[in-house]
Design goal:
The chain has 253 residues and is α/β, with parallel strands linked by helices. The chain is built from 8 helices and 11 strands. The strands form 2 sheets. It has a 9-stranded mixed beta sheet with strand order 9-8-7-4-3-2-1-10-11. A two-stranded antiparallel ribbon has the order 5-6. One zinc ion (ZN) binds next to loops.
Amino acid sequence: MVESGNLKMLKIFNCDFHVHTCLSPCAELDMHPGALVEQALNSKIDLIAVCDHNSSENVSYVIKAAFGKKIEILPGMEVTTKEEVHILAIFNFVSDLADMQRVVYNNLAGTNDENRFGIQAVVNENAEVEEINDKLLLGSVDLSLDEVISYIHKFNGIAVAAHIDRESFSVLSQLGFIDAGMNFDALEISAAMGIKEARARYNELGDYPFITSSDAHYIKDIGRAITKVLMEKPTLSELKMAFRKENGRQILE
Ligand SMILES: [Zn+2]
Ligand SMILES: [Zn+2]
């Protein structure tokens, strides 16, 4: 295939930028890396971002589980800010995510209460438990929304306001507004609402790219919401171009 600057092949990729694993205390234990990849493939998803609460310890195992399969994995995390706002932090490289993880753990206090919140299992690509994480992953980091977004950008990631339509842990539920000063790269709409309804409802946010994701905590929920992105290949830099509608790249609504 010949490719030149103006002869790029653009394709539609089915993306789910918000999937949990069994490391999240609120996710089911069956949500281990191999099962998650399997279900994503069954749901015809081309790209997923793994975003557990304040932790990324299963990401490398999901990448291993996906090795050689027709699916791309972006390393990510769902960070809870001091204001109890959930932000998706999605990166190109595991090394960038590791830098973010260091910042998050340095600012996260407390120990998990398994009986109250659930087990936080680090599970490898062969479904073997490597470790039980005992940090309070459902807690908030001691960093403001602005600080978290600055760190995400410092490590070359994208910052997405998670499930803005939800009545808890969203920037609208916690702060009541979204403005350009917050530097979000995109806004996520939950599966329950979907992008079309959100466009009608949040007219004032018309300039932002909207995505929708499954926010799956259960295997059966993978695929319940998909963002279709027109781009050349399933990478973060292509996605950034789609957010800016550059060179034909775009989010299809
Ligand atoms: Zn959330
Ligand atoms: Zn989530």
